[in-house]
Design brief:
heterodimer; B: mainly beta; five-stranded antiparallel β-sheet; 11 strands; about 0% helix
């Protein structure tokens, strides 16, 4: 198991629901990331935070809203999602935003939107 | 826009053989290169990182980097069925956003 945890591990929601994904890292890292992984597609970067400040927003629809209250926690708030948003959502962290830092991934949340 | 290309496979090799996974990238200023392994239903985990031209060996794994050809590869010697997974190549650049670009991954199947 890595030092990055995610809850819930599985989530089924309707298009009108509001839910939140939670990520916590126990590694003392300063950078955290949200990725979307759909079948047969590369990892899609969604958001990047460094020292609790958002440094990247990769043209993600507004129905996805990130929150980083401190360097250990990252949330992804979901509302009025579409069926095509069904995917594996991965959280990752790295020591810093540095080209030579590896990323540590959480186990992911498998999201199904009905 | 950086691009990282991998053959999606599947690459099928017999147990005990050498598996060769390849990755090409478009950005000449790329400086750091990572190979992640992802088992089905699991999250990616780092296997190797390489920053300089040449070979880097770690157990049964060897990463090879050729910056002039913009090419990085991962060799797995004495392949085992437990090596069956998707292998993701990630590329980062010094002096840029420091956010890696991932390829779509190559599926490897090692059959007994």
């Amino acid at each position: 198991e890595t030092g990055v945890t995610q809850t819930p591990r599985h989530l089924v929601m309707g298009m009108t629901n509001k839910k939140s994904l939670k990520c916590e890292q126990h590694l003392g890292h300063n950078a955290m990331y949200w990725y979307k992984q759909s079948a047969k597609k590369p990892l899609e970067l969604m958001f990047v935070y460094s020292l609790e400040e958002r440094v990247e927003n990769n043209s993600v629809p507004s129905r996805f809203s990130p929150e980083c209250p401190n360097s250990s926690h990252l949330f992804l708030h979901l509302h009025t999602l579409q069926p095509e948003d069904s995917a594996l959502y991965l959280c990752a962290s790295s020591q810093d935003l540095d080209a030579y830092n590896e990323q540590f991934f959480g186990p992911g949340t498998r999201l199904t939107v009905l | 826009q950086k691009e990282v290309e991998q053959n999606s496979g599947p690459l099928s090799v017999p147990e005990g053989a050498i598996a060769s996974l390849n990755c090409t990238y478009s950005d000449r200023v790329s400086q750091s290169f990572f190979w992640y392994r992802q088992y089905s239903g699991k999250s990616p985990e780092l296997i190797m990182s390489i920053y300089s031209n040449g070979d880097k060996e770690d157990g049964r794994f060897t990463a090879q980097l050729n910056k002039a050809s913009q090419y990085v590869s991962l060799l797995i010697r004495d392949s085992q069925p437990s090596d069956s997974a998707t292998y993701l190549c990630a590329v980062n650049e010094a002096g840029g956003s420091y956010i890696p670009t991932f390829g779509r991954g190559t599926s490897l199947i090692v059959h007994p």
